[in-house]
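Data card: per-record layout.
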Amino acid sequence: MRDLRPQRWFLSAGAAPSSQVRSMQRAHPNMPARRYRRALRSIPLLVVLCGLALSFRQGLVPWYLNPLPAIDLADPSPPFADWRLAAMRYNPDLCRRVLVAPYVEVEPIADHPLQDGCGWTNAVRMSSAGGVRAGFDKITCEAATALALWLEYGVQPAAQDTFGQRVVAVQSYGTYACRNIVGAKFWKNRRSEHAIANAIDIAGFTLADGQHISVRRQWRGDGPEARFLRAAHDSACAYFRVVLGPDFNPEHHDHFHLDRGMSWVCG
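The structure for this 267-residue chain is written out next.
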């Protein structure tokens, strides 16, 4: 019969570490308190770091204190893209440096100070981006940059992969509209990002051969049009903070909503 005594000895020996822990706890009775005090001392540092991150996210860091380089429309995957896009929010000089030909065709427009939550700051009038006719009368510099990156590095590759041709135009429901959020369950009285020209509604795309791809008619299904629309929708999440489509709610059954606001949703 197999001798089990070595196994019993092993189990007995396995209890030793717990005994050592109890001995250490008796020898150092203040160890939990010390850890607690160290954790408390780290709270101010965490608050500062969170505040700094929020300042970068909202574009509140002055350009002369911002160590991040200006975002480049020639780079399809810029690191820290969200913070670098946000840096353009209140910086017209940076806007003029970034939004240049051949990537975009824009012209700056005068600010319209907020009144009742509506207006715009540091905005442009856009006629094209990423080789696409994209006419927007009022769009913030930040959103215009995100749009240019998305059209060039999200929409165009999706069109080439699916149809073997490029997109030449987008159809939109506009950018600026002095109104509240549509379809919100909890924020019914909150102004939309459209109210500050920081949002874009895309209804469809036109290909080089003249074919029109409609979000309303062709989002559903497994055909090439649906695959293209879903790829375009998903790629927008790399540049916009809020990307809503027909699967999000009934109010977006016929368009993509793209914005650079406070929230973060890809749906």
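Known properties of this structure: The helical segments are 5-14, 16-27, 31-57, 81-86, 92-98, 141-163, 215-218, 224-236. The chain is about 40% helix and 20% strand.

See the next section for split statistics.
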